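Blinded run. Sample ID left blank on purpose so nobody reads anything into the name before looking at the predicted structure. Input follows.
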Amino acid sequence: MVSKRHEGPIHIIRNNPEVIAHLLRDAFGLVLPEYTSVINGSEEFTQVAPASYRGDNVVLLCGKDPARPSLAVVAETQLKIDSDKPFTWPVYASVLRERKRCDVLLVVFCTRKSVAAWADTSIDLGHSRFQLRPLVIGPGTAPLVTTTGEAARRPELAILATLVGAAGEPDQASMEIVHAALATLNNAGHKDAVLYSEMVLDALPKAAQRILEALMTTGTTEFKSDFAKRHEARGKAEGKVEGEAKALLLVLAAHGIEISEEQREMVTGCQDTAVLEEWLKRVATAETIEDVLG
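Blinded prediction complete.
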């Protein structure tokens, strides 16, 4: 049963909600926004159609009891400025804090400097000294990994830093660091090694892409990856196919056999060396391009 001690003050406020305004202004010294009336609102917070709030990821730091973590972290990736986030981020933090009964941090990964600057500000919830300021990682923050050795020990961190622009300038040195990370995961047989490589290449500017692709192809003394070896072998195979196609076109020209643009594309687009070699053999007795291509 709800006690009178509990209901007394609430009853007064229900009867005269202006009391709250007086308390805030006179007892706590708060400067209130302009208003014309003070009314009672519903105490019921349950929605008929509850809104679904979902963060990108939650990480729990646990001790002996996984059900009672010592720290919970909400991790969010923010690609653009979103006026809704100052309202939903506090929901994530407070609901998670109530559910797990532990301290909560909000970490936001931003891929653009302007978005990082926007996210790295305090969210004022309107209550005195009740603010939430995200921990922001992105362009302009200090590099998270600074050596190839560290990248080999913590490859995912190096890759994450590259994806959000927190790896420093995308130059030769930083690309050697991310290559060390990618090679380490690839050599360990990580299931997402190739995916990570594609993600990193997609996130980099063209100049940095060329540097990293060169490292992937040739490798380095310390981090010659299986991916680099496969890439190198694939390059040789592609070079052989290209050579066969060029040879076929030269021989056709030497024999005076005319070829249309569509047929030329058919030859240059063929990736099967056995087929190209068979076409080359047919040229000796062919009179038309149809005799060669069948």
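Unblinding after everyone has recorded impressions. The two ends are 92 Å apart (CA to CA).
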